[in-house]
Amino acid sequence: MKSSPNKGVLLQYWLSGALGGWGGTSDGKHKASTNAGGSVHGNSRPGAAGGGGGKVGLSGGLTQPAGWQSLLSFSILFLACLAGFSSRLFAVIRFESIIHEFDPWFNYRSTHHLTTNGFYEFLNWFDERAWYPLGRIVGGTVYPGLMVTAGLIHYVLNLLHITVHIRDVCVFLAPVFSGLTAISTFLLTRELWNQGAGLLAACFIAIVPGYISRSVAGSFDNEGIAIFALQFTYYLWVKSVKTGSVFWTIGCCLSYFYMVSAWGGYVFIINLIPLHVFVLLLMQRYSRRVYIAYSTFYIVGLVLSMQIPFVGFQPIRTSEHMAAAGVFALLQAYAFLQYLKDRLTRQEFQTLFFLGVSLAAGMVFLTVIYLTYTGLYVRLLTCYAKIHIPIIASVSEHQPTTWVSFFFDLHILVCTFPAGLWFCIKNINDERVFVALYAISAVYFAGVMVRLMLTLTPVVCMLSAVAFSSVFEHYMGDDTKREKPPEKAEEGLGPNIKSIVTMLMLMLLMMFAVHCTWVTSNAYSSPSVVLASYNHDGTRNILDDFREAYYWLRQNTDEHARVMSWWDYGYQIAGMANRTTLVDNNTWNNSHIALVGKAMSSNESAAYQIMRSLDVDYVLIIFGGVIGYSGDDINKFLWMVRIAEGEHPKDIRESDYFTPQGEFRVDKAGSPTLLNCLMYKMSYYRFGEMQVRRGALTPPGFDRTRNAEIGNKDIKFKHLEEAFTSEHWLVRIYKVKKLDNREPLDHKLRSVVPKQKYTSKKVPLMLGGEFALQVWRDSFRFS
Amino acid sequence: MFLIECKCPNGMYCPLFKVDQMMEWSSRRSVVRMNGDKFRRFVKAPPRNYSVIVMFTALQPQRQCSVCRQANEEYQVLANSWRYSSAFSNKLFFTVVDYDEGADVFQQLNMNSAPTFMHFPAKGKPKRADTFDLQRIGFASEQLAKWIADRTDVQIRVFRPPNYSGTIALALLVSLVGGLLYLRRNNLEFIYNKTGWAMAALCVVFAMTSGQMWNHIRGPPYAHKNPQNGQVSYIHGSSQAQFVAESHIILLLNAAITMGMVLLNEAATSKGDVGKRRIICLVGLGLVVFFFSFLLSIFRSKYHGYPYR
């Protein structure tokens, strides 16, 4: 407690160091942050004020330090929010206020639909521009929390006559919510350990790359707001287990409802909370508080979660939710037995009965949990990690996690959070059971799938904060105060060691802050819609080919034109070009995607058949050979082939696209099937005439991405024509020609040469004629 | 046996008798072992009305071909599925040629790697696609079945004999734990031992954060030995992959840093001799700082372009 103010000052200093790491370009950043910073400020006040109030009560007579303490903790929390907000603005400052990547474009498009047409129109929205000719029922197949949140903020701001565009609301939503996440993490950690650890945890979560990766400005995705909902639900759950009041539990249910509406990861909550209750029962830590909290949470949470159209009746049908139901039944049985125990007198019979029933219930529950978790485990392993379904294996997020990604995303925290876990288990109580279970389950899921690193990050921050805070608590105490009670004098480790430890720990934290800033700036802040390349002198070139091409589509094609592209670009085409797409990033229909993959990997005439049957007007591809962009369609091409092969094994074979040595090459040695497939031809059409690197000794048609001279330079199209190629050839659009008016004959027209031969054959006939004439003459003579 | 001696009028072995012989063999064993002589008679020689799948392999222990053994298991599973399926017929046979029994066959087919799966169709010579692409698809029996269905139009539903070893191990573990609890029923204090539970939790955490799950799914080699100079590298050069040895090193480093943190805390809280506590404190600090910088340097060597030390 005593060391807390000092700690606060140092933290502040450290945070300002983190803030200073960005260099000079902070003018625009601060301008941008004032608006959203206000909302963070407004929301953070009640939480921090409540914390301060609690402190006053605890500290009793020391009113002056308590006042300082609450002011300091409030300002640290505010600075943490600010740091979290502003460290997510790299992309906005470097580029502009723009929606990133792929999925956010769909979210943005549906939010736009929501704000222009109203909520009910959004719930009933049938999007005929996606998955042509199938369409998509958007209202029933999304988690609407994100769109509704953004739409609500936009509505309120406009009500106050602060006219902002919905795009800006969407871009800045995730940073604002990261500030809220810092506050809820502070609250949760304060419940688990103490206020100092809470402040440290808030600072950690504000800048940790594992969370920034999903919440930079512009990445308008479910995870950005879901982590806030997750942490806040957990805080309210811990609070309700601690107090046993229905008020906190109802708050927890409402927060859970928000989480269900925001992200499919709510399954994590609905399994973790029952697990917590179950373990508490096993540890004989059952109490009325747990009973009230869980019974209320289960019933109200269940009913609320079923209100989301996309979730529907899943909570009472699917296996993921069965553990919660099992624990609910078990808890009721246990409580009933407790009740009986008070009433009945025969103690012996009582205990036997209790043992038998609890064993039976435990067995039932264990089988349920076993089935659930094996189901989950099998699904996690087979669906995502193993390479059974190519469309899932092709997504890089669904891979298992190496230690490098753990270290990259969490840095020092990954090494220190086991220490926090150790302290929590050594000093166990009800809520620390919860955080231990949270840590173990989250670390398991993060190991299985890179994407779930996101759920691990908050608990790592909390536990690392516990570890660091307990070290600082012992080593950062000011010695002047410690000398006052003389009986403690013998236990001092000496100021030298203390200051060395403190300095080194602060150095570690400084390294962490620097690492976070570097990772955020270099790895997680590129919009991927706009690319940037740097010259040797540090000047920057912006490659805006994507938007150029999408805008061309928007302006120059028919409003109902159908654009075929690989599924990665479906949302962007729909969002930016506003044209109908065949497949998009919501990969629910494998056969449709396989059909597009088949068209891309067949030869032109076979592809034309498919494209005719799908009413394709334009084909859009991404080609990076000119600028050396490695994420282009030729590099993704093998996945197209694999997915197509999965559905059409008779027509497409992956081995045809390799050389006999098993290599995938685009140069002359490449397989002829590859050199004549539609994707190859569209990518390299007229590329053979192009000298890419001027002055260098590269031949024309040299692909910079694959470092090879292309093998087929003489590409001619029969059914397609080039419609548009962007400035750096990054996006190429082809128009699919309509059928000709008359079917062209597939054989050659008969030439006129045989007629001449016929006339030349007449010469003997002429002779015959003469002969006939003579005969006639003879006959005449006879007559 | 005398059937083999019976000759057709044209001097060749009669396809009828050959298929009978093959049926007899494969009814005895689902995979027919072949030597060079048999191979030429029953697989290579033209008048045939059945397809043959041949696995060329080297199963002798002195060949040290572990892949061959795994492939052989999968192949046996597939052959048994075919042998005991209702669709079993004399259209398709599974055979194996071991290098040590038919080295001449390997020479004849110009083959220098094992295992190799080949399909010899009933009519005509084997084409390029009749050699199973082991490198790319792997040798799971499902993949083999798919390939066979593709080449011969014979659908085989792979039926794996259920693997009871996992269940037995689990039952054994449960009974062991239960027995232990029963034996020590008078003294169940150790269940409430927080240190034990904390140790178990930390083990799970260390295993996961050092990427053991990645190892389990991807199955990397333990370490890489450079064939040129025989140098063994334990750290994979790329940040996308890792070796088993590497993940063990990381596990130890993480554990050391955690232990350092715990020791730092112990030194401050425990009640004992000040000098001893000072030493504990310095050891803890040393563990944290030294091993963290070591970890950072490994990370730096893997993550190219990382600017900080």
UniProtKB/TrEMBL annotation, chain A:
Pfam families: STT3, STT3-PglB_core. Keywords: Glycosyltransferase, Magnesium, Manganese, Membrane, Metal-binding, Transferase, Transmembrane, Transmembrane helix. The keyword DNA repair does not apply. InterPro entries: Oligo_trans_STT3, STT3-PglB_core, STT3_N. Gene3D superfamilies: 3.40.50.12610. Its cofactor is Mg(2+); Mn(2+). It comes from the Eukaryota. GO terms for molecular function: dolichyl-diphosphooligosaccharide-protein glycotransferase activity; metal ion binding. It is a multi-pass membrane protein. Residues 29-52 are annotated as: Disordered. Its EC number is 2.4.99.18. It catalyses: a di-trans,poly-cis-dolichyl diphosphooligosaccharide + L-asparaginyl-[protein] = N(4)-(oligosaccharide-(1->4)-N-acetyl-beta-D-glucosaminyl-(1->4)-N-acetyl-beta-D-glucosaminyl)-L-asparaginyl-[protein] + a di-trans,poly-cis-dolichyl diphosphate + H(+). The chain crosses the membrane at residues 71-93, 137-157, 169-189, 195-213, 263-283, 290-310, 322-340, 352-373, 403-425, 432-450, 497-520. Belongs to the STT3 family. This is dolichyl-diphosphooligosaccharide--protein glycotransferase. It comes from Sparus aurata. The gene is STT3B.
From TrEMBL, chain B:
The keyword NAD does not apply. Its main location: endoplasmic reticulum. It is a multi-pass membrane protein. Pfam families: OST3_OST6 (PF04756). One of its GO terms (biological process) is protein N-linked glycosylation via asparagine. CDD domains: TRX_family. GO terms for cellular component: oligosaccharyltransferase complex. The keyword Signal applies. Pathway: Protein modification; protein glycosylation. The chain crosses the membrane at residues 164-183, 195-214, 249-267, 279-299. It is found in: Endoplasmic reticulum membrane. Keywords: Disulfide bond, Endoplasmic reticulum, Magnesium, Membrane, Signal, Transmembrane, Transmembrane helix, Transport. Belongs to the OST3/OST6 family. This is Tumor suppressor candidate 3. It comes from Sparus aurata. The lineage of its organism: Eukaryota, Metazoa, Chordata, Craniata, Vertebrata. The gene is TUSC3.
